[in-house]
Amino acid sequence: MTSEPMKKKPKPHKKKAQKAALGNQYVPKTNIGKRMSANGIRTILISLLNDSNSPPSWASSWHKPTDPRAIVCIVPGIESGIKYKVNNDKTDIPIEEVDLGLFSSLSSLQGLNWLFQLRSPAQRDSLYSLTEAMLSIRMTRKEKNDRLEESKKAQLTPDNCLLTIDQMKFREYPMPNCDGYFTTKDLGTPKKIFGLDCEFCNAGSEKVLTRICLIKEDGSVILDQLVKPSEEITDYKTEYSGITREMLENVTTTLGQIQATLLATISSHDILVGHSLDSDLRVLKISHSRIIDTSILYEHAQGPPRRPQLQWLAQKYLNREIQNSSLGHYPEEDAKASVDLMKLKLQNGPLFGMVSEEIPLVERLKVSASYTDKLASTAPPGFEFCPVTSDEEATKTCLEQVKNKKLVVLTLRDAESENKISVANSIQLLVEQAPPETAIIIVSPTTNEQNAHIWASKKKQALKTRQIWTPEDQQQLQEAVMDAREGYFLFGFKP
């Protein structure tokens, strides 16, 4: 008796995704099953602003506006104003389960159906800039070749080389008007460029200033001075600093005198050039917002986030040997190398000395874009910079810019100082007054970055001062970085 072959059970038909009604909306898929990264936000912008009509992978249907434009509003520090239960299974969070609190105006956005958990970019023990990750994209081979040719023709200016506010924050530069620091003021003098380098010794676990050199753009020396710290030096670090006990015996110049000299010489609109000046300015207790840092202007052979050493840069690009004396470093030599590296960059274009494979997103999309942030002195590459002095002014500027720009990025800072009502009012104004069909993306990085930066600074200090860095310390740092990666973003269209 032959048995009949078993019939395969018919597979259940997958429900076809319900198409969205015509108009500017999307229908998100349920159960994404993973957090979104900065790439997810970038995908939204690409889907909106390029010629393709395809939706992001997490949307089942998409109908773009006839004249697409987008506002990306970065708001550090508002998560305490929105209450939701974090999903342990890492799925997306239905917006109806979220108490938007002060930010209830967001619920009026068409298509704002989901709150996405956001993972900021990081390695095991270091954070990257979320803004940089969102607004850059890997180059194609053609783009790389085209950029190399164009770079040789580009007219690069010192202003093009300034650090952005995000670069300064992520590299722990003293921010303007922060507690315990002097901030440079407008001296009413013509704009100038200075080179700066300092040498330090250790007083316990702290660095102290023992020598400083300030030079003009032409290399002439303005200041080259030994400094006697008020603290007792415990390690002269002579092999690096070049400083010995005997050199400082009869020195009477103090840190306060050096600060007074610098503040009377460097105007807020002048440019300071140096290598990893974050360390110098922290020890000097001075903040300055116009910085060219050659450790960022040029890239490490293995690419970011590693920073190249000044000695290697001088040898490779200037054919110059520095820092090779057994008597330690000479700050004049280092300051001149930094200024000369800046000049070489200006002569050879923005891609000179870079190994990065990424380009500004707006360059790929070929769209007009603007950027505003009350703490910034420059914009990410490809963006028009709109200087403002307050979140209120930033919001009004954004609403003006979005009328004739395809992409506007603004950062609201008041929540960082616990002024969440001000931020809520700014967001409400954006939602109410943005042009119809404008895509609005609200991005909230975590407020826990500070703890990660504190632990990163502890590790950096321990390694530099040859203190013990325990496995427990490393675990604390990694946990702080992982915690700092958590944030969220919301997305919708103005009806």
Automatic annotation (TrEMBL):
Compositionally biased intervals (Basic residues): 8-18
Annotated stretches, region: Disordered: 1-24
Keywords annotated in UniProt: Exonuclease, Hydrolase, Nuclease, Nucleus
GO molecular function annotations of the record: exonuclease activity; nucleic acid binding
Signal peptide segment: none
InterPro entries according to UniProt: REX1-like_exo, REXO1/3/4-like, Ribonucl_H, RNaseH-like_sf, RNaseH_sf
Pfam families: RNase_T (PF00929)
Superkingdom, taxonomy of origin: Eukaryota
Any Gene Ontology CC annotation: nucleus
Domain Exonuclease: 192-351
Subcellular location: Nucleus
CDD domains recorded: REX1_like (cd06145)
Family, as annotated: Belongs to the REXO1/REXO3 family.
Protein name from the UniProt record: Exonuclease domain-containing protein
Origin species: Meyerozyma guilliermondii (strain ATCC 6260 / CBS 566 / DSM 6381 / JCM 1539 / NBRC 10279 / NRRL Y-324)
Record lineage: Eukaryota, Fungi, Dikarya, Ascomycota, Saccharomycotina
